Amino acid sequence: MSVKINALELENVKRIKAVKIDPTQNGLTIIGGDNNQGKTSVLDSIAWALGGDRNKPSNAVREGSTIPPLLKVTLSNGIIVERKGKNSSLKVTDPSGKKAGQTLLDSFIEQLALNLPAFMNKSNKEKANVLLNIIGVGDQLAVFNHKENELYQERLTVGRIADQKAKFAKEQLFYEGVPADIISPQELINQQQAILAKNGENQRKREKVTQYEYQVKTLTDEVARLEQMLQKKNEELNKATYDLSMSKTDALDLQDQSTDELEKNLAEIEEVNRKVRANLDKEKAEEEAKGYKVQYDNLSLQIDEVRKQKYDLLNNADLPLPELSIDDNELTYKGKKWDSMSGSDQLRVSTAIVRKLNPDCGFVLLDKLEQMDLKTLTEFNAWLEQEGLQAIATRVSTGDECSVIIEDGYVKEDVQSAVESSKTQWKAGEF
């Protein structure tokens, strides 16, 4: 059974003169009043009484009072906590009458329940870590977060490369109407060499014609000059004439081939190949970009799977509130991160988490509850009652929603009687 506060009796603490309150066991006990009347002093007194000297106000004694503070808190487990005297000494008495100390109180009092702003002012990551430690999945979630971060960084790198490759591919020139592969000039060179060889052979045959013409002329002159050798020379002449005739016949049928087209093709082939290379480079860049895009998509799927495992882990955990979760190492409630939550939702989340920290502590102190409108206040009270949780809160208001109203250091209905009583029978340390 969680411990709650049954009664408060406070004197001369900060702005409090004399206040006695019996808080509601489940739900809200709202301490109302105008500013600077002593509302927050009540919460500070409870925190000091139950939480120890670490929570003692810096100016604990009420200004103008010569009487030291007196604090008495009666708890639902029968323990009575008192601080009184010049040194505000602690006295803890259990139901059997035995005395104890702060160690006993610390066993069932949650420090953050006494100082909820200490939790609310933690960083987003610190608040998330508190919740993770409560539900016992911190180590597993850390593994998932590490894996997700690794995959995210890898995907980020791959994505950048993919973008660079795609941009590079897009900037590459592409030429229409050129072959898909690099052209080899060797075939054209072979054709050119064959034609040049043929033309050389033709030239040698032409040279033979000239040679035979010279020979005929020489022999003709020799016949005229050497009649005596006519017969012999005539035979030679006849033969030479015959050879000449045959050579002329061959020469007449010869036709030289032009290499201009081949030379033009050779001149153009490098330009064609340049365009082909450009097209091949573009295709390669596009393929690389596609490859990195596939890697990026695969990494995205892996990240989604890790996130699903994280969500499953959190959804199956014993969370203090429905719709409470952790995303990117931050608390989320109803899909909103801390800085996007309403003030009332922040209080509800904080209260639930602090309750979960120490289930033996059945109460929480809430300051400045004026941020909730009446409708939200009613809903919050219903939730507290449902959870069996006691909340003692302050609110700048004197409306009907307030359980008690503090005015000038007193509960309002006790103001006049306290003034009159103090004139005749006020004694230090008594109500």
Automatic annotation (TrEMBL):
Residue ranges annotated for the Rad50/SbcC-type AAA domain, each copy included: 8-271
A Pfam cross-reference name: AAA_23
UniProt keyword list: Coiled coil
Coiled coil: 202-316
Keyword Cytoplasm: no
UniProt KW Coiled coil keyword: yes
Name by which UniProt lists this protein: AAA family ATPase
